[in-house]
Amino acid sequence: MAHGVSDEYKKEHFDSKIKLEKKLDQLAEWIRSAKHFIVFTGAGVSTSTGIPDFRSGMDTVLSTGPGAWELRDNRAKTPKNAKVLNDMHKAIPSVTHMALVELQRRNIIKCVISQNCDGLHLRSGLNPDCLAELHGNMNLEICSKCGANYLRDYDAATGGLDHLTGRKCDKPECRGLLKDSTINFGENLPRSEKSKAFRHANQADVCLALGSSLSVTPAADVPERVAERNQKLIIGNLQRTCLHKMSSLNIYAFTDTIMEGVMKRLNITIPPWILRRCVRFQIKHEKLNNCYQILIEGRDSDKDLPFSMFKSIIVKTPKSEYLLKKEPFSISIDMNVQDTKNEAKIQLQLNFFEHYNEIPYLLEYPLEDINEEFYLFWNPTTGVWVRKERADENLTQ
């Protein structure tokens, strides 16, 4: 019980088929009639992606095996038959993640409040305006000086007490030290995320808590606030939680099972997950020096934040080839030493981090002033990039 969870709360329960069907009917009815529906998520929404949770017991039925803290408390190792990813960035958002994305897109969910720092909610496509990440995000860095945010397609969390990542703010007028955004035990929750979460908790008439023991405060105070206001709190979890007596309904089932059942009753299809990438490209001709300034940036498609999504970029001109290995991905090409005849072109090869086996994306442009932004969508099941000019374009077209 080193982490405050007794054996009583480690035992896993499963509703019978008949009981589960009735509970899902009730949950779907409450969601339909809700005026302000929110969802609170814990590690249990990510276990089906291959990411272990923290508190599942040594005899858990989860394919990921016992929770990280349970292993530590028992001085045990992850079982050999456990299906655990060695790199969380390879995790494909679960059925639960994608169901939440679709419900948020339809404005049925007003806010998702999460204890998870695995980055899967953002990666799944949730609009950050409708997401409060109480314990931070392993992919997010924040400038300690100006507060600018930077998303990374790699683990930015340091695990250190000072949170310093060794990188600096890109803004020339700032250059402040960057810190990771993950929250260690004993640290205060980020003020903006906490404020957002409780603002929605104070408006919610239905709150669905998924995959959380609801034992870590102050995060667990969010669903508790809903119950204290005599509004409906529904808890979906395999174990009994600390708030089970306060809830309107306790559902004992996998979170994916719960969300599949709810979406079926709401007659809403759960969309497949597709990786989204936003690319900003610029060529600027500086006539005074007769050179071309080339800049390639990754951006977050929802909040227009800098997003480190390229491992490297190859730039080819008529006579030279350049390998850009780190940000900012920019280069100045002196046209005095280039062959400018026959409409010289520039070729680019965008190399990604390949978490989902993304192949390089090739581009070709004439050497002229260009300033554009476009979107790339990668379907890991087909292995094909699709380019669109808008993030919301139909990918089947």
UniProtKB/TrEMBL annotation:
GO terms for molecular function: histone deacetylase activity, NAD-dependent; metal ion binding; NAD+ binding; transcription corepressor activity. Keywords: Metal-binding, NAD, Transferase, Zinc. Pfam families: SIR2. Its EC number is 2.3.1.286. The keyword Transferase applies. Residues 17-269 form the Deacetylase sirtuin-type domain. One of its GO terms (biological process) is negative regulation of transcription by RNA polymerase II. SUPFAM superfamilies: DHS-like NAD/FAD-binding domain. One of its GO terms (cellular component) is nucleus. It comes from the Eukaryota. It is an enzyme of class 2 (transferase). The active site is at H135. Zn(2+) binds at C143, C146, C169, C174. Belongs to the sirtuin family. Class IV subfamily. This is protein acetyllysine N-acetyltransferase. It comes from Didymodactylos carnosus. The lineage of its organism: Eukaryota, Metazoa, Spiralia, Gnathifera, Rotifera.
